[in-house]
Design brief:
6-stranded parallel β-sheet
Length: 213
């Protein structure tokens, strides 16, 4: 059951609002090749996680190389141009027109996320932005989402969180926030359904429609 008095809707970024799955795969291929590690689509499907350190570990990248890998990944990603998932701007506009607060809670690095928000001209929709590294704990720990709600001045029972990964659903549930799963382009669609979101929507448009109904 959706929040009776909805005040805020918060979102994941990659795969939920931004179409970055194919870009992420290509960057991973280039990144691991730079360390002499072969990486293919089967590896992407087997190791993908919003916490990319799990991917590094699963692919056998030595821990003392992770910091360098972070820097290389960001540089490689900066040469790509992500786009919004179709319908995103309209969905965000509908929520704004209804007077609902909006926020982003993402595992992505702040410099990358802010650059994409500005380039895609959607930063103005969000009153709060919590990125990877802003809290000691990352998704699926509830801390990032709870921090965003604290900054908005909104109680968990008056908020909804929309994401495309099981980690998003686990985080929202742990924070006592209404969870909405929207399957995206990353290889975790089956796991998303198994995570048991309060609502599993076919698209972002369907998710927003259900919230505003």
């Amino acid at each position: 059951m959706r929040p009776a008095r909805l005040r805020a809707v918060l979102f994941d970024w990659d795969g939920t609002l931004a179409d970055t799955a194919d870009i992420s795969y290509r960057v991973y291929v280039e990144l691991f090749a730079s360390f002499g590690i072969e990486y293919g689509i089967a590896d992407f499907e087997r190791t993908y996680s919003p916490d990319w350190y799990r991917t590094f570990e699963a692919m056998g990248l030595p821990r003392d190389s992770w910091s360098e890998a972070d820097a290389r990944w960001l540089e490689m990603y900066s040469r790509q141009r992500s786009e919004l998932i179709p319908g995103t701007a309209v969905a965000l506009s509908r929520l704004q027109q209804r007077g609902l607060l909006q926020g982003l809670v993402t595992s992505g690095t702040r410099s990358r996320i802010e650059r994409d928000l500005d380039r895609l001209d959607v930063r103005g929709f969000f009153e709060v932005l919590v990125c990877g590294g802003d809290t000691p704990n990352r998704k699926p720990h509830p801390e990032p989402l709870l921090l965003a709600l604290e900054r908005l001045g909104v109680l968990p029972e008056a908020a909804a969180y929309v994401g495309d990964s099981p980690e998003d659903i686990v985080m929202a549930r742990a924070a006592a926030v209404f969870s909405i799963g929207v399957p995206g382009g990353f290889p975790n669609r089956a796991a998303l359904g198994k995570a048991g979101p309060d609502l599993l929507a076919a698209s972002l448009e369907a998710a927003i429609g259900a919230l505003l109904a």
